[in-house]
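Hey all, quick one. A colleague (J.T.) asked me to put the 2-oxoglutaric acid job into the tracker so the inputs and the C-alpha cells live in one place instead of scattered across chat threads. No bug as far as I know, just bookkeeping. Sequence used:
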Amino acid sequence: MQEASASMGRVLTEDQVDDYLRDGWLSPFDLLTADEVAAARLALEDFEASCGGDLGPVYRSGSHMLLPWVDDLMRHPRLLDAVEELIGPDLLCWNSIFWIKEANSASYVGWHQDYEYWGLDDDRLVSVWIALSSASVEAGCMSVIPGSQRHSISHRDTYAANNLLSRGQELEIDPSEHDPVSMPLSPGQVSFHNVRTAHGSGPNTTDDRRIGLSMHFMPTSARQTKVDWDAAALVRGIDDHGNFAHCPRPKIDMDRDTLPFFKKAAEAMREIIYADTPATE
Ligand SMILES: O=C(O)CCC(=O)C(=O)O
C-alpha cells in the first residue's frame, strides 16, 4: 500500500535537523494560517459541543479515525515534509491526542518520556504538537530537557487529579536541575520532540483555553511490543512491514463506517498504556 510522496524542496534547514537530532526537540515551525487555525478550533469546539461540552477520555485520543479534518491535518503536506526530513520517507502516524487546558485551570502535564509507555520499539518516533490557540509560557506551553532522549529516566505513577496523563506519570528526577527549555507557540505553530525526550507543562494562567493537538509519527518498520494488534495511519510512502493495521479514513464527522475500528484501536491503546501497572480488584 502506498501513500502520497514528498513535495519538492526542503522545509527544514540542515542545521534544524542537526539540532533536532542532537537535542531531541525543534520549535517553533510555522504550519497553519490564521484562517486554518480558526477553522480547526471551530471544528473542535463544535465536536466538543456534540459530545456534551467535553471530549472526555474517549474522544481525546484517536479522533483522526472519526473526524476528517483531524485526518487531513495529520496528512498536511508541509508537516509530513518536515517529519520526513527528520525520520525518513515511509511514515505511519500512531496516534493523535488533544491536550486542552481550560482558561485559568490547574491542569498540567507531568514530566515524562513517552517511550517508556507506548510499547513501540523504534526510538526515532517524533511527536508533533500543533497549537490551536496560544501556547505561551503563561498558558502552560510544553518544556523539554534537551538531550534527555539519550537516556531512560525512572518514572512513577501518581494518578494526580490535575495531571492530564492517564497514570499521572512523573519523572523521578527534578527537571529544574536539568536546564529545561520552554517551547512557546503561537496559534498555528508546531513543535517537534523525540519520543524519549523528557517533557511536561504547567497550568494555564491565561483567560483563553490552551488547545494543542499532538500527532506521533514513526517509520513503517516500527513494531508494537506490548499487544498483538495495534493500529496506525499510513500517511506517506510505502508500508512493506505490515506491523500495524492501517486506520481507515473517515468521510464524515463520527463516520459510522470507521467507528468500530476506532473502538478496537482505543481498546488496544488502553491495554498498552496500562500494560505494566499492578492488577487492581
Ligand atoms: O500538551 C502538553 O502539555 C503535553 C503534551 C505531550 O505530552 C505530548 O505531546 O507528548
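Adding what we noticed when we looked at it: Residues 99, 109, 114, 127, 129, 142, 199, 201, 212, 214 surround 2-oxoglutaric acid (CB under 6 Å). The mean pLDDT is 95.
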